[in-house]
Amino acid sequence: MDARTDIALTTDLGIEAPPDLAPDAMSACRPFPAQPAHNEALGFPGALVEDWQDQAIAKMGELLENSRPLRVFLDSCVKCGACADKCHYFHGTGDPKNMPVARQDLLRSVYRYYFTPLGRLLGRWAGARPLDADVLEEWFTYFHQCSQCRRCSVFCPYGIDTAEISMAAREIMNSVGLGQKYCNEIIGKVHKVGNNLGLPPAALENTLEGLEEDVRDDTGVDVKFPLDVKGAEVLLITPSADFFAEPHVDGLIGYAKVFHQAGLSWTLSSYASEAGNFAMFIGSYEQMHKIANRIRKAALDLGVKRLVFGECGHAWRVAYSFLNTLAGPWDFLDPRYPVPQNIAAITHDLIQRGGIRLDKDANAGMTVTLHDSCNVARASCLGDRPGDQFTIPREIIAASVPAFVDMHPDTIGDKTFCCGGGGGLLTDELIDLRVKGCKPRANALKQVVDDHKVTHMVAMCAICKSQFTKVLPQFGYPMEMIVSLHQLVSRSIRLATNA
Amino acid sequence: MHYQLNDQQIEHDEEGYIVDIAQWSEPLAEHIAQSENLAMTSEHWEVISILREYYQEYQIAPAIRVLTKQVAKRLGDGKGSNKYLYELFPYGPAKQACKIAGLPKPTGCV
Q: Which CATH code, of 1.20.120, 2.60.40, 1.20.1270, 1.10.1060, is assigned to A36-185?
């Protein structure tokens, strides 16, 4: 499990040459299946049902019925090859089934067999095949080697979204009792405790008190980390990793300092103590809805006026793109502010208006680059102008540190590479895949380290932060190299006691 | 899946975390550490006892920052860092140390 792979990095990135093909190189790499208790807690069958083939096909039919895009994605591929070398897992593994087109075909072939006349008539001559045990195993393996980052869809002339296909495949598998342990166990914890970690309210309270102490010791200023405060202006929804892990917690401290300095009253909720919504990874609208509604209930119970999200990539996609459908209407919030807002937009606006002042000298010696997180980059915006998801974090960094350098243009912005741990793959048994999938990002990082002496890389997603701190040491970079966006703000913000 | 400790079988999950935390004992911790190629020192034991005490009170392992503060208190300021904890538990203080302490694995984006 502790796979230390010696992957040689190259600085000659540009558009990287496709790797040598290594058929079936990753055929044995798959996550742990969920145990019956994990599946049943979400209303899925505990284990693979007897008539799983029939049920899976029926489920596929239902998805096709409900999702026009899914049918279009399955119908419209012309095998042009534009996506073939765009997946970070293909780059890292060379396994041809990690080419996006091949990954899609795992589902498409079954779709053709059961849902198209040509496929039914001509079978494999029309790229169609029946669903059998081998196909199911292949699905479980390779649809868990897709981080749903959607980089391939940027290059597809038809805009086919592999993430949608991989979500559909996972949804079908869950419906017949073949779930993935990592995601399903975590979703169960959100329903039960309120967050992915399983952090109970008393532990959260204790952790936040500790942070107040730390900031006081550090700065002499009483910065509060309020919990369940009724009537606060802002409800902050942030990934529970922000309470637990490094460097996430340094970001949380940054948000608190920004609120403090701006004089904005805010609160966290012990009921909705999670921004993440792993139900998106398994394609389950019902589960997504259930998780999102914890946020609605907390906002109503606490009587807040604004909803703000902390640094989390897929949470922001769910919040930015789906929150109104999932848990709206939000007409009880202050209509002068967008619902939801991202903490980065608030900080950025305060910097522009002089509401907070940052002192770059506090980060002297740092040369920083930014890893655009896939869900922020390709599935959302951060402000109100197109492209704000790219400019806002860069302008915050530029205001906080003496030097900022971007990585190669083919690896940032909407072409950003996934960290290698997104989409429900941030689990230890997939560490080999995670290391290999990180290679394109590590290559681009090496280039700016070698050429521009970059010392730190900012991430603004909890998964990216955990993945990089775990995996970058395999490429020779220390875990401390990864910093939260608001960690830079935290270190550079000028605090006054508001006296 | 189980650890074989003398004549006792102690069930664990796919990743080696014991299923029933009441079955934990110091010899079992030694046994798990051995299977992780880790030689337990007094510093390791100190971290394990901090984790277990916190878990008793809060039903979860402490956040890394809470842990490092406790470690600094008990083992000296120089040792209160994430880096030091990684030296003790190379696979991560949260996950590997929890496994040896008999606690459930912290889940989520960590």
A: 1.10.1060
The DSSP element (H or E) to which B57 belongs, if any, is helix B42-58
Give the pLDDT of residue A161. 98
Tell me, yes or no, if A207 comes closer than 8 A to chain B by beta carbon.
yes
Helices A248-262 and A201-219: crossing angle, nearest 10°?
A: 70
Task: Kindly state whether residue B109 falls inside one of the protein's structural domains.
Answer: no
CB atoms within 10 A of CB A286: 11
Alpha-carbon gap: A437 to the closest alpha carbon of chain B (Å): 17
B98 assigned to active site: no
ipTM, two decimals, is 0.96
Which long-range contacts does B37-44 make (Cβ < 8 Å, 24+ apart)?
B38/B89, B38/B90, B38/B96, B38/B100, B40/B100, B41/B88, B43/B75, B43/B79, B43/B88, B44/B88, B44/B89, B44/B100
Does residue B63 contact residue B76 with C-beta atoms inside 8 Å? no
Q: What angle do CA A123, A128, A133 make, to 5 degrees?
A: 105
Please report the pLDDT score of residue A250 as a whole number.
98
Give the gap in angstroms from C-alpha A463 to the nearest C-alpha of chain B. 5
Residue contact A197–B60, C-beta within 8 A = yes
Q: Where are the alpha helices (DSSP H) in A401-497?
A: 431-437, 439-452, 462-471, 485-492
A451 close to B (CB below 8 A): no
Q: Is B107 contained in some domain?
A: no
The arithmetic mean of pLDDT across residues A33-50, rounded, is 98
Q: pTM for the whole thing? A: 0.96
- B91 is a domain residue: yes
Between CA B107 and CA A132 the distance in angstroms is 33
Distance CA A399, CA A458 (A): 14
The reply to whether B29 falls in a domain is yes
Chains A, B: CB pairs < 8 Å: 89
- Which residue range forms the structural domain that includes residue B23? 2-101
* CATH number for B61: 1.10.10.370
What ranges do the domains of chain A cover? 36-185, 194-405+454-492
Find, among A364, A376, A77, A37, the residue nearest to A192 by Cα: A37
Q: Shortest CA distance to A311 belongs to which of B109, B82, B95?
A: B109
Helices first, then strands: H and E counts in chain B: 5, 2
Q: How many domains does chain B have?
A: 1
